[in-house]
Design goal:
The structure is a single chain. The protein has 222 residues and is an alpha/beta fold. The protein has one domain: Rossmann fold (3-Layer(aba) Sandwich), CATH 3.40.50. It contains 7 helices and 7 strands, in the order H-H-E-H-E-H-E-H-E-H-E-H-E-E. The protein has helices spanning 3-8, 24-34, 48-59, 89-106, 121-130, 148-158, 189-199, and strands at residues 38-42, 64-71, 111-118, 137-142, 162-170, 204-206, 215-219. The chain has a 7-stranded mixed β-sheet with strand order 3-2-1-4-5-7-6, with helices on both faces. Helix 4 (89-106) links the parallel strand 2 (64-71) and strand 3 (111-118). Helix 5 (121-130) runs parallel beside helix 6 (148-158). The chain is globular, with a radius of gyration of 17 Å.
């Protein structure tokens, strides 16, 4: 169960944030049951989740894996000066490049493709749609901007890129930049995720086995 985690915990990587680690168990189950070959990740930060997926694919004996990583590497509201997760995003971008290069160097995968998209997510998603990648991805991981309008835009624009029977995962479902009791619904993923799930209920279904931090939806119709 800890194969991928062991691989990316070895010296050489440069992770300062490992938020994804707490959800590793459910992601192992996701990879074992769906065996995704093509993943779209919105929000990559230092590349921990992307490197984990590369490693997990190798652990499972896959021969090829393709991941598209969308991020501005400029940070969200929680990363700006004075915020709770203040970081220097230029350093984050450098660590992403270093970590992906390390993963590429160490992977036994014969065919690994990593495609960074350094731009706003709606522009990257529009480009993928224009390229004809409809129904292309097995898994789409939405973990970019945590502001509700952005989350809803990412979800709606990602939907046609996800194949039927594919999985869309929303991270930080209950996250808020504000303290308990003072939450601004426009600065939370939950209202956007709920709206998307309700409006697309005839095309997607909420999967059992999610966590407080992550919500999983399975697409069953275009």
């Amino acid at each position: 169960m800890t194969g991928a985690l062991t691989m990316i915990s070895t010296p050489g990587y440069a992770f300062t944030r490992t938020w994804f680690k707490k959800n590793e168990k459910i992601w192992i189950n996701l990879f074992e049951t769906t065996k995704p070959a093509r993943v779209l990740e919105i929000g990559s930060f230092e590349g921990y989740s992307a490197c984990w997926m590369i490693a997990q694919s190798a652990v499972m004996g896959a021969t090829h894996f393709e991941i598209h990583c969308v991020d501005t590497w400029e940070g969200g509201v929680e990363h700006q000066p004075g915020a709770s997760e203040e970081v220097r995003m230029a350093d984050v971008a450098k660590r992403f490049e270093h970590n992906i290069a390390t993963a590429k160097q160490r992977t036994p995968l014969r065919n690994l493709q990593v495609h960074p998209h350094k731009t706003l997510s709606h522009l990257a998603l529009a480009k993928l749609i224009a390229e004809g990648r409809l129904g292309y991805f097995d898994v789409i991981y939405v973990d970019g901007s945590h502001q509700a309008p952005d989350v809803l835009t990412d979800a709606v624009m990602s939907f046609p890129l996800l194949k039927v029977d594919g999985i869309m995962v929303f991270d930080d479902y209950l996250w808020s930049v504000d303290g308990k009791g003072d939450q601004d619904i426009l600065n939370m993923p939950k209202p956007a995720v709920d709206a998307f799930a309700n409006l697309f209920m005839r095309k997607m279904t909420v999967m059992r086995g999610g966590t407080r931090e992550q919500l999983f939806l399975r697409k069953y119709a275009d």
